[in-house]
Design brief:
Length: 234
């Protein structure tokens, strides 16, 4: 009989804050001789603190700690770990944010078990995992045009769109109040030029959420967040 080709043994970790999903993935992988799920954590920092040797991090796109996909992927890559996103039906802006940070691919939680396992096996071996959903989120949506904000503009947007007044943003960033206002004007101009106008503070909040600058609010808090920004348009 011809000898069967064995896959190399790979060790993976999961960052996921829903227990049912973590249990489900554990069950999926328990009979795979070449893939070992060696750690589960609810945040990236918690997983890295376990200090275990891994070939791949499997990361949920949205976590309860409010972290952005981009910052999570960057933190994992800084620790020498490649990442596969394991997600439900999500905002394409967040998928694109993770993709820009350098993930190996995106696989949906709704995919058949065999598809999920194949994606994990490929990513754990360092191969790209290209799916239709990922390609569509990155390339197919005309509303995904980047606005090209500088790091300083992103800092101002994050603070202002989260509810801070312009003078408070100035104090937090060490910028002059007029400079903050100039940044905000330029940010609005860039969004308008990209076909994603943001004339009000509420609009800036929405754009910041879309682009992964701010986390998507929990459903129960959504109305409160929008009320805050509507009451603070100056």
């Amino acid at each position: 009989m011809p000898e069967q080709t064995a896959f190399p043994h790979r060790r993976v970790g999961l960052v996921e804050d829903h227990e049912s999903v973590a249990i489900g993935l554990s069950v999926m992988l328990k009979d795979e001789p070449d893939i070992e799920l060696v750690c589960i954590a609810t945040t990236v920092s918690e997983m890295l603190a376990q200090n275990v040797s891994l070939d791949l991090a499997i990361l949920d796109l949205r976590l309860a700690d409010g972290s952005s996909p981009k910052s999570n992927v960057e933190e994992l890559r800084a620790a020498g770990l490649e990442t596969l996103i394991f997600t439900g039906a999500e905002n394409p802006f967040l998928v694109r944010s993770a993709a820009r940070a350098g993930v190996l691919g995106v696989v949906r939680k709704s995919e058949p078990t065999a598809v999920v396992i194949d994606a994990i096996r490929a990513a754990a071996s360092g191969r790209q995992v290209v799916t239709t959903e990922w390609a569509a989120a990155i390339d197919g949506d005309p509303g995904l045009d980047e606005v090209g904000l500088s790091p300083r503009q992103l800092e101002v947007l994050e603070l202002y769109a989260s509810g801070e007044k312009a003078d408070r943003v100035a104090r937090l960033t060490g910028l002059a109040p007029q400079t903050v206002n100039d940044y905000l004007q330029r940010i609005r101009q860039k969004y308008a030029a990209a076909g994603r106008p943001a004339p009000t503070k509420t609009d800036l909040y929405k754009r910041a959420v879309e682009d992964g600058v701010l986390p998507i609010p929990e459903r129960r808090n959504l109305g409160r967040n929008l009320t805050l920004t509507n009451n603070d348009l100056q």
